[in-house]
């Protein structure tokens, strides 16, 4: 066992310096992601008991993200990417302060806090996505996302359970509010540490300065369609667990416990899939993730009780990382291909990709809100997730088309050899500059 762990650690050390630093930065920042994703929604539920406000908060976040992606393209002309990446991480703490300082959770305050969090996510994800594509190639992307997902899943065991226990241990509403304030302070400290780690990297800004285009290769439009389906679930899936648990399971303690069940097994499985799977296996990984999500969502709709929620959360715990493990390498490979054909910088496609996600997020969140206001809250919680999960199954067909067309345009071996040559040149140049 120890020999196996040593072997895996040696494999990590064999990666490039920037690969290791980006992974470690994301590891530290991952400690606050469960707080942002789950417990901010729980805070809104505790203080308003209104699921529509949680979805509106999520919509505000998703409105801020594409605007910041666009702004980031301009900022990259004037600021170092490490600075922007760090500011994005630290803004998440600012958003939480805004939320905790609201005396009443009115829509204006929720929208301001949500847009601020959207600014945070926009700076974080736009720069993180560019760095991910610049430091990896198609050959090691399964490993990169498998390792990253393994880290996130392990953290998802300890953080939700610990925070849930911490909030539950507080007696009275005032003490619980104080507990949330303490958690916000801890978030600030962790985001600062993540920023320190980030500055250890030798990350370079994109060379190309023009990022906005309106005509693209047909392969890119297919990927935008796939992004729309991915965005459908993102529309409210981040906060759906918190809403379901508050309505059916109860308090934050149950939230933390439910998120932790089965996470160890999921983390180990995801790591080894990422470590040993090949690019050709991505369709299988994607299909399993989408089917698990659909089964869990449909069971939740049929049962709509404690058993249904727990089964849904368990399946979602496995489904989300499987979907991401396949989706992101597919996305980056398409960017590799079309950027070479159209002779444009990678950030152009990272920026444009966000438009596809945003369209899907609006449709997903809109589906929930329409059902909420036209039928009932319970009906929306029960069936919206199932509707979206079944629609997402069309992504299997789309991803097959994308990979087939991509292989026809640029065979894997040809593209990998070109990427490896570029990486060798970049690393040699970096060593020369350092010396």
Automatic annotation (TrEMBL):
<dbReference type="GO" id="GO:0022857">
    <property type="term" value="F:transmembrane transporter activity"/>
</dbReference>
<dbReference type="InterPro" id="IPR011701">
    <property type="entry name" value="MFS"/>
</dbReference>
<dbReference type="InterPro" id="IPR036259">
    <property type="entry name" value="MFS_trans_sf"/>
</dbReference>
<feature type="transmembrane region" description="Helical">
    <location>
        <begin position="355"/>
        <end position="374"/>
    </location>
</feature>
<keyword id="KW-0812">Transmembrane</keyword>
<keyword id="KW-0472">Membrane</keyword>
<feature type="transmembrane region" description="Helical">
    <location>
        <begin position="107"/>
        <end position="125"/>
    </location>
</feature>
<feature type="transmembrane region" description="Helical">
    <location>
        <begin position="145"/>
        <end position="167"/>
    </location>
</feature>
<feature type="transmembrane region" description="Helical">
    <location>
        <begin position="179"/>
        <end position="203"/>
    </location>
</feature>
<dbReference type="Pfam" id="PF07690">
    <property type="entry name" value="MFS_1"/>
</dbReference>
<feature type="transmembrane region" description="Helical">
    <location>
        <begin position="286"/>
        <end position="304"/>
    </location>
</feature>
<keyword id="KW-1133">Transmembrane helix</keyword>
<feature type="transmembrane region" description="Helical">
    <location>
        <begin position="83"/>
        <end position="101"/>
    </location>
</feature>
<feature type="transmembrane region" description="Helical">
    <location>
        <begin position="223"/>
        <end position="248"/>
    </location>
</feature>
<feature type="transmembrane region" description="Helical">
    <location>
        <begin position="310"/>
        <end position="334"/>
    </location>
</feature>
<feature type="transmembrane region" description="Helical">
    <location>
        <begin position="56"/>
        <end position="76"/>
    </location>
</feature>
<feature type="transmembrane region" description="Helical">
    <location>
        <begin position="21"/>
        <end position="44"/>
    </location>
</feature>
<feature type="transmembrane region" description="Helical">
    <location>
        <begin position="254"/>
        <end position="274"/>
    </location>
</feature>
<protein>
    <submittedName>
        <fullName>MFS transporter</fullName>
    </submittedName>
</protein>
<feature type="transmembrane region" description="Helical">
    <location>
        <begin position="380"/>
        <end position="398"/>
    </location>
</feature>
């Amino acid at each position: 066992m120890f020999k196996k762990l040593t072997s895996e650690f040696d494999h990590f050390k064999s990666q490039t310096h920037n690969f290791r630093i980006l992974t470690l930065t994301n590891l530290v920042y991952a400690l606050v992601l469960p707080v942002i994703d789950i417990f901010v929604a729980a805070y809104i539920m505790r203080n308003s008991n209104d699921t529509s406000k949680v979805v509106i908060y999520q919509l505000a976040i998703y409105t801020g993200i594409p605007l910041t992606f666009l702004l980031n393209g301009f900022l990259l002309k004037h600021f170092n990417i490490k600075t922007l990446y760090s500011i994005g991480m630290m803004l998440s703490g600012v958003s939480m302060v805004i939320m905790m300082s609201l005396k009443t959770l009115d829509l204006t305050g929720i929208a301001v806090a949500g847009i601020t969090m959207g600014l945070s996510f926009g700076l974080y994800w736009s720069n993180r996505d560019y760095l991910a594509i610049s430091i990896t190639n198609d050959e090691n992307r399964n490993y990169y996302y498998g390792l990253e997902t393994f880290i996130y899943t392990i953290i998802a065991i300890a953080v939700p359970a610990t925070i849930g226990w911490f909030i539950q241990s507080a007696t009275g509403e005032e003490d619980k509010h104080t507990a949330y304030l303490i958690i916000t302070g801890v978030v600030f400290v962790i985001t600062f540490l993540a920023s320190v780690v980030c500055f250890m990297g030798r990350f370079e800004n994109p060379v190309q300065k023009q990022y906005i285009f309106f005509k693209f290769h047909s392969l890119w439009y297919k990927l935008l369609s796939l992004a729309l389906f991915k965005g459908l679930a993102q529309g409210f899936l981040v906060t759906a667990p918190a809403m379901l648990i508050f309505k059916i399971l109860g308090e934050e303690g149950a939230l933390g416990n439910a998120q932790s069940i089965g996470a160890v097994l999921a983390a180990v499985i995801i790591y080894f899939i990422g470590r040993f799977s090949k690019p050709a296996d991505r369709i299988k990984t994607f299909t399993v993730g989408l089917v698990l999500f659909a089964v869990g969502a449909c069971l939740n709709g049929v049962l709509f009780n404690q058993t249904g929620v727990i089964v849904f959360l368990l399946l979602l715990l496995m489904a989300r990382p499987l979907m991401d493990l396949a989706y992101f390498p597919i996305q980056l490979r398409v960017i590799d291909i079309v950027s070479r054909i159209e002779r444009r910088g990678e950030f152009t496609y990272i920026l444009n990709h966000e438009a596809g996600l945003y369209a899907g997020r609006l449709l997903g969140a809109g589906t929930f809100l329409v059902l909420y206001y036209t039928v009932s809250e319970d009906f929306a919680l029960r069936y919206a997730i199932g509707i979206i999960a079944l629609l997402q199954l069309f992504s299997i067909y789309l991803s097959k088309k994308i990979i087939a067309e991509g292989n026809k345009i640029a065979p894997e071996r040809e593209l990998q050899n070109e990427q490896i040559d570029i990486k060798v040149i970049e690393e040699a140049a970096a060593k020369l500059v350092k010396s």
